[in-house]
Amino acid sequence: MILAQFFSPDMDMKYEINSWEVSIGRAHTNDIFIDNATVSRFHAVVARRGKGWVIYDTNSKAGTFVNGQQIEKKAYIFDGDIINLGSAVLTFRSPMFKRENAVKRQKAELTDGDIHQINATIGAVTKAQKQAKKTIPALVNLSDNSMILLFSEEYIIGRAANCDIVLPVFTVSKYHAKISNEGNSWILADVKSKSGTYVNNVEISEPYRLQDGDTIEVGGIYYRFVREYISE
Question: Which CA distances in Å does 82 have to 79, 92, 177, 204?
Fold first, then answer.
């Protein structure tokens, strides 16, 4: 069953998407293999999520672009969108998912209750922004210096879409690790992942109490734990 397709006018190629999640890259082990030196070995993942298709950049060197705009981590894609992976150009085809239809649906689904919820969310975000000026623990992605502020009591890290911290890389297990707040400490634990969870290059077999500056590795993705980050 063909769910969606990519067309490459430059290479005169057609790639069929037959599953809910496919990997794209220069390595032959990818679902979609692209023989182009500017494409990273594991460049991106395309997956069906909720009401549409999402493309995830998997820490590629050249970046992933949708209609000329570079994506930071992920973006929804629609029928006719132009995807750039390095110098490789792909056209995404999925007639059921047109961008104009998504916009119309979002407008139609916006009720008075939604508007009330949006206003409440804005108020909560404003309050959180004020509180964020205090010191707060954080994870810093060492590949791009992006920051994850640890507001909640517990975070599940993994490849699955329902994880709190989603890492759409095949070296990461669906549910890979857990980081939780216990009193004044943050505890990191592996949740029976295939490739293991590491702190300062040492695999942990039991829950580990994180110290400021510790380096965490999950499936080849590295974070630094910062105990007291001051949010601006």
Answer: 9, 6, 35, 42
Tokens of 177: 């690790």
pTM across the whole model: 0.46
The C-alpha atoms of residue 41 and residue 152 are separated, in whole angstroms, by: 34
The residue count of the chain comes to 232
DSSP 164: S
Asked if 119 contacts 201 with a C-beta cutoff of 8 angstroms, the reply is: no
Retrieve residue 150's tokens.
Answer: 């640890």
Domains of the chain, with CATH numbers? Answer: 4-93 (2.60.200.20), 99-130 (no CATH), 136-229 (2.60.200.20)
Q: What φ, ψ does residue 38 adopt, rounded to 5°?
A: -85, -5
Q: β-strands 197-199, 215-218: how paired?
A: antiparallel
Please check whether residue 190 is in contact with residue 197, taking contact to mean a CB–CB distance below 8 angstroms: yes
Residue with tokens 């004044």: 184
Residues 207 and 192 sit within 8 Å (Cβ to Cβ):
no
Q: Cα–Cα distance between 32 and 45 in angstroms, integer? A: 10
pLDDT tens-place string over residues 179-197: 999 988 999 999 999 999 9
Which pLDDT score is estimated for 157? 95
| pLDDT given for residue 232 in this prediction | 45
Rounded Cα distance, 148 and 142, in Å: 12
